[in-house]
Design brief:
Layout (H helix, E strand, L loop, with lengths): L17 H13 L32 E8 L3 E8 L6 E5 L7 E4 L1 E3 L2 E2 L2 E2 L2 E7 L7 E6 L6 E4 L7 E5 L7 H11 L5 E5 L10 H14 L4 E4 L15 H6 L15 E5 L4 E5 L11 H11 L8 E5 L16 H13 L4 E4 L5 E8 L2 E2 L5 E5 L20 E5 L3 E7 L4 E10 L2 E11 L9
Helix pairs in contact: 5-6
Length: about 450
């Protein structure tokens, strides 16, 4: 059952003054907010962009460090340097004591008049599960640390989309940092660079404190396309955020899958902005990927997309419909448990659905495009609220998907309420593999 939440009586900074409050509340009601506390929660105002810069005193120093999972026991360490350095990572389980090392490669890319620094990628491992490793990139003196995900259940995922780099982004990241998550899942729209390549550098610096400590697994959104003249799409995204697509048999960094918790959870990262129609490479790959899953050992299957297939917000209505028509049947037949999406700058949780109707064997669709981007919240909802939409709210925040065991998982959505993380929605989910009549 959904968690009931008392609404905060203290409005966030920048809330409307008392004479305007009644008009704001009426407007919220007319826009379709339907949760019990909606009439006493005031939407937070926008916050300014953050431009993170680094005074480079050492051209060999690593910056924008982030890590991602590569198979069951390895991690990719990615970082950027001004100068060309040895792409080597030294690591061990004690601070300052490095018992192992691994080497990789580096590259750079150009975008109009911009040329990136050297983007280094090194895969380290094998690594032990649930273990803290200390590491150093190349010959730099700064030491980083990471914690590997658990090799079995339980496992906690942080789920947040459409991050950007505003004051609200910083608040969201602060809340994620103390959540105790093992792996972060991001369904697209990372930096909102939108062709201004220096903003990719700023974003990398902003997220480094988190992304250097826990694996971030991402897929692309529309703001990653960055198509200009003859420049191919996704140039910066593919160069900076390389995912382990080859291991899942994918031929593109724009869609892939990976296992977590010793294979108990299978995560499918789909590409909303590359070909997905019947017969395309992504469609055929998805068929093959789903066919490999053994639900006896992998009871939980989760998919991520950017443009939601189910959406009762006026923003981006029906933009995910072509992909839904092409792929929903595949996910339904495979009994995918949850589909996370971004794109719409608000939060919404649906019932288990298929073909736009409630279906006990369909996935739960959840939109979490509320990370804190500069474009602001999407607060206009279709009214009356369709019955399949169980909770919707236009607030910044993030989600936590805690897979407790083979049969049950806890989902909670955490609203950024005046810089305090408040649980606004929560539900216990039962895996479809253990749901009578679905297998």
């Amino acid at each position: 059952m959904a968690t009931s939440t008392r609404c905060s009586r203290r409005p966030p900074r920048g809330a409307p003054s008392a004479p305007l409050l009644s008009l704001v509340l009426v407007g919220i009601f007319l826009l379709g907010c339907s949760v019990p506390h909606a009439l006493c929660y005031v939407r937070p105002p926008a916050r300014a962009n953050i431009a993170v810069s680094l005074a480079v005193t050492d051209i060999n120093a690593p910056q924008q460090v982030h890590i991602s999972m590569v198979g069951a026991d390895k991690m990719r360490v990615s970082w950027i340097t001004v100068a060309s350095v040895s792409s080597t990572v030294y690591y061990g389980t004690s601070p300052g004591v490095y018992t192992s090392s691994a080497s990789g490669s580096s590259s750079s890319y150009s975008f109009l008049t911009y040329t990136s620094g050297r983007i280094n990628n090194v895969v380290i491992g094998p690594l032990l599960p649930s273990t803290i490793y200390y590491y150093r990139c190349s010959n730099a003196t700064k030491e980083f640390s990471l914690k590997t995900p658990p090799g079995q259940l339980p496992i906690k995922f942080a789920v947040v989309g459409d991050l950007g780099q505003t004051g609200w982004t910083k608040t969201t990241l602060d809340h994620v940092a103390v959540s105790g998550y093992d792996v972060l899942l991001l369904p697209g729209d990372l930096s909102y660079a939108d062709n201004v390549q220096s903003l990719w550098d700023s974003f990398g610096l902003l997220v480094e404190p988190l992304a250097s400590q826990r694996p971030w697994m991402v897929t692309e959104g529309n703001h990653e396309i960055e198509k200009v003249s003859t420049i191919e799409s996704f140039r910066a995204y593919n160069a900076r955020w390389r995912m382990p697509y080859e291991l899942s048999g994918s031929s593109s960094n724009l869609y892939y899958s990976f296992d977590a918790a010793g294979g108990a959870v299978h995560v499918i990262m789909l590409g909303s902005y590359t070909d997905f129609a019947v017969g395309t490479a992504q469609y055929n790959w998805l068929i093959g990927d789903l066919a490999k899953i053994n639900r006896q050992t992998t009871p939980w299957v989760v998919a991520l997309i950017h443009a939601p297939w189910y959406n009762t917000n006026y923003a981006h209505q029906n933009e995910g419909e072509p992909m839904r028509l092409a792929m929903e049947g595949l996910l339904y037949k495979a009994r995918v448990d949850v589909v996370f999406a971004g794109h719409v700058h608000a939060y919404e949780r649906f019932d288990r659905v298929n073909l736009k109707k409630q279906d006990k064997c369909g996935p739960v669709h959840i939109t979490v495009g509320d990370g804190g981007n500069r474009e602001g919240l999407a607060s206009a909802y279709i009214s009356p609220k369709p019955a399949i939409s169980l909770f919707r709210e236009a607030s910044f925040g993030h989600g936590q998907f805690n897979v407790v065991n083979m049969t049950h998982a806890r989902w909670t959505w955490h609203r950024n309420s005046n810089d305090i993380s408040v649980v606004g929605d929560g539900v216990w989910l039962t895996s479809l593999f253990s749901t009578p009549g679905c297998f």
